[in-house]
Amino acid sequence: MSTTHQQQGQRGSEVDSPDRGDKPRSAGGPSPSRHVDPTRRQQAIAAWALALPFTLLFLAFTLGPVLASLGMSVTDMRRVDIRTPFGVNFVGLDNFTKLIEDPLFRKVTLNTLLYLVLGVPLTMAIALFVAVLVNRVNRLKGFFRVGYYLPVVTSIVAVSVVWKYLYRDNGGLFNTVLSWVGVDGPGWLDSTTLALPSLVLMAAWRNFGTLFVIFLAGLQTIPKELNEAAEVDGANGWGRFRHITLPMLRPVMLFGAVITGIGYLQFFEEAFIMTHGGPLDSTRSVTFYTFDQFGFGNLGYAAAASYLLFLAIVVLTFVQFRLLGDREDKVKR
Amino acid sequence: MTTTHSVTHDPKAGEDEAVVAPNQRDDSITTPPWIYAVLLVGLFLVVIPFVWMLISSFKPEAEVRAVPPTWWPETLTLDNYDRLFTQLDFPTYFMNSVIVALSVTVGNVVFCSMLGYALAKLSFPGKKLMFVIVLGTLMVPGVVTFIPLFVLTTKMGLSNTLIGMILPFMAAPFGVFLMRQYISALPDELIQAARIDGAGELRIFASVILPLCGPALATLGILTFLGSWNNFLWPLVVAQTEDKYTLPVALALYAVGQNATQYGLLLAGSVVVVIPVLVLFLFLQRHIMQGIAMTGIK
């Protein structure tokens, strides 16, 4: 069973050497595929035959569009230009400056950052709390793991419909329960201050299961002896959590923060269904804004907006992987 | 949310980790009862939206909107489900979702395992570059590609067709990554032996490697199916007439359209979207948990 740090280390080396699979052959004794040319050519032909279907689809529908989107972002392309895509005008960075000057784009950027800074800690805290508890039970472990994971496999559209019903001002489940303790619940989705946090709460409920399963696997790699030794030394439960569990889980948690952060930066469906971006654009996200601009037919402008989001995701990922990489060096030293 | 990361390179190790916890198994310390209590309450909170969805979907429209709500339907009715068929065309949406999800799944299982094998075990020019590019596109958000994809599918005459929904998702980088990870861990000796026996490269892939990939193919298939079933943005862009809607598209457009207040109908629709995948998950959860351990992806 590999430990958390080994896992991270392996990941790093995997990325660096994609042809790791060949190494044992080239290192250990004569290998026909390495030294006999005809066989090697045969192998290359076979490899390309196997790679071809994926490569064609990938070029046409993934890599091509990624580059095309960048190209479109510096043009004034509109929906009517689809017939003659090369007849559009080059406008340089105009779309980007227009975006930055648009008050609505600034607002949706701020909203998206709010989704990120509210959503990531909340989702991670719930996942960590549940993972630590489930890690301590001897029975029903599998039952809890499956149960807490359930929301992850469900459609965001469907759960948004359900939660909109739960959040209803009058007769919604939340406000009914609140009324038992004498609280007159607000209209969760009708308030410019409450709507966004309400959507985040639902998203945390829908998403924490993934992190929970990852954290649980991480917790199970922490040697029991560490906790036992700390207990002998008189550390209480909180002390052990602070000084053993958290540091040992750090790489897994940073990874969890990356994937969760990428998710919240793309926030869209929940707001589309539950609030339509309102009230007063208080829940509109960058993806929502891009979708709207696409709907208005402003393809070049929408592509520019989507690239700014892409850039934010790359920066976030890069920063967090740097943190993760630094951590690994320290551990190795 | 779709993102990737490798947590372990040996699928077997991942399996053990996800299913058993050796250092906890022999734990002689008894668990304090309050932990079970907290976890059961937490689990109740997690499943209550599904329970409430199910219960409410069997109430007549007036009772669905009752203040205060009734806990158990005073009048049990299938009326909401009936309206999914009469007022809306749910069988069509359901079939569209099934066709799209199955096609996307088959495409990914076939194409990703082919490329995954080539990247894991064969040497060919351009291999390293291809791996880096495919891996690099893993974190590209859907919102970046959908606009050029819309232009492309329109040009190809595929707008408002199921093929237009399927084709762009038939070859996803995630699957290549997963299959390559798994096949890398298979012993090279198998391939060497088959080569000595005179088997051709494609033959080795089909009759030596693929039969050993069962767990990885199952994981890839299930995760791809779930992802496609729940996919929303792209089908929403492609589908322009009702007969091409998938379930999430239909549900979303009714939920924001003139049916927005018909909660009974919408909740019954949600049941139709959610319950099949929940059942599928409960039967196949082992493979999904393995998949998360293998790749860290949901």
From TrEMBL, chain A:
Keywords: Cell membrane, Membrane, Transmembrane, Transmembrane helix, Transport. Residues 1-38 are annotated as: Disordered. GO terms for biological process: transmembrane transport. It is found in: Cell membrane. GO terms for cellular component: plasma membrane. Residues 1-11 have a biased composition (Polar residues). This is Sugar ABC transporter permease. The lineage of its organism: Bacteria, Bacillati, Actinomycetota, Actinomycetes, Propionibacteriales.
Automatic annotation (TrEMBL), chain B:
InterPro entries: MetI-like (IPR000515), MetI-like_sf (IPR035906). It comes from the Bacteria. GO terms for cellular component: plasma membrane. Signal peptide: none annotated. It is a multi-pass membrane protein. Keywords: Cell membrane, Membrane, Transmembrane, Transmembrane helix, Transport. It comes from Nocardioides islandensis. The chain crosses the membrane at residues 34-55, 93-117, 129-150, 162-183, 204-226, 263-284. Belongs to the binding-protein-dependent transport system permease family. GO terms for biological process: transmembrane transport. It is found in: Cell membrane. Gene3D superfamilies: MetI-like. Residues 1-22 are annotated as: Disordered. Residues 94-284 form the ABC transmembrane type-1 domain. This is Carbohydrate ABC transporter permease. Pfam families: BPD_transp_1 (PF00528). CDD domains: TM_PBP2 (cd06261).
